[in-house]
Amino acid sequence: MAFADLLEQVGSTGRFQVLHVTLLSIPILMMASHNLLQNFVALVPPHHCSAHTNLSWFQLSPEETLQISVPLDPAGRPQRCQRYVTPQWHLLNYNGSSAEEGSDGVLQECMDGWSYNLTVMTSTIISDWDLVCDLRSLKEMAQTVYMGGVLAGALIFGSLSDRFGRRNLLLISYLLMAVSGTCTAFSSTFSLFCLFRFGCGMALSGLVLNSFSLIVEWIPTRVRTVTGTMTGYCYTVGQLILAAVAYFIRDWRWLTLAVSLPFYAFFLFSWWFHESSRWLALKNKPEEAVEVLKSVARFNGRQEEGEKIDMLQESMKKEMSNVQGSYSVLDLFRTPKMRIMTICLSVVWLSTSFAYYGLAMDLQKFGVDIYLIQVIFGAVDIPAKVVITVCMSYVGRRPSQSGALVIAGITILINILVPYDKQTIRTCLAVVGKGCLAASFNCCYLYSGELYPTILRQNGMGWVSMMARVGAMVAPMVLLTGDHVPWLPGLIYGGAPILSGIAAIFLPETLGMHLPDTVQDVEEIRTHLLLMFPDLVHSMSKSSASLLLLLTLYVKFLLCCL
To answer: pTM value?
Structure first.
């Protein structure tokens, strides 16, 4: 008997599934708070060099002190990184020797630090540790370190959860997020801040991978799309929650603490979660799998049906004995279809994440109130995910994935041609692009989970998540190229999704299909492309090395742009 039949027997959409999915979705509300926290804790406030410290006895107003100490930039604002070596008294039209001795106008670095306008946030890591001027690249480095943690977490938790179970690793992820977030809030140096943010990134990977697997492995095929989309909406709502929390808590330490403390509560109630019965069965633990199924049957009010599962233990042992073995990331590349599928998914995830964080992590450039633009960027996900859900349900996963990426890339490229003074048009195009990328992410999680077999699902999800984090790590660095070539970041951010949209065409369709349990199940999938072009799969098998080379060159291209 297939696992899907067992799930129907104990109740596939009963009270257990409703409560299970709900409790797993609640922590996802706070995921965006950590993923996009950098927009607020690393907000760059308006700043300029501090005035000379020996002017207090002249009884000058703050405006006059600033006028004789700091020159103006071409926009008529005080320069951020330079000041006069000596006070320029002549700028006040004073007469006397003091006017003559400071008239040379020689500039120097900010020897006495910086003055910040802290009206938006009362404190940020920028103002606390003076991460401006020569140190301004450390802001992007902090986000890169965080994404490095997400990358490490994808590698570690993806492999371990396939070996030790989804539930155990999810518990560890909740606790790690709570502890690392708390320590981040009390960091005394920038180095410690980066260290603990790295821990938060690792925890986020474990949370995403194991939450998704526990959700998708306990629900039937017919509600998988809707459930996946509703889970994605939790992340969307989380973006709005972040804007609201940041609006009322404007100190970066208290803000970080506020979005971290809930994970202690999540850790406590997560002890109720049931391990994936599908995973237990495939790990040659049929007795434990049956006990979990019985527990679910009792919770769903189907105790009699649950007791009948005893008769299936022997047949389950026999069936599962055929798929035993130790699996690793290398198994994602051993067989032709798994290899092609993994390479194409890697390109899709890398480009989606790269372009998404390139837009979402640079909100200040739009010249709009930071809290308002965060709400707009979060709210656009609502219609975007409605559209992608309808498309995935009726058109299919593959065309939905490809279309979302291509449209996102086109809108970003069009934005390059819009003049910088047309902020409204630029913001609207960026919002559309971000919405398409959010829809692509929503499709990615569901599509990848459906493509990979149960015995390799966590390894596969860990691998593609790792590729996504590579893109997310590179994205902040690409922003620095705009200092030299203003249009280059937009070209890179726009070109990447279009290339990955083409790669998505080579993936098999999964609409209406049962989850594969073994590698053999994946190899037996007949795609629409195979039906139309009988020789395509054979040729793709021979060209898999070329596809891997293309992926490698693509990553190198992004790195070379730095």
So the answer is: 0.73
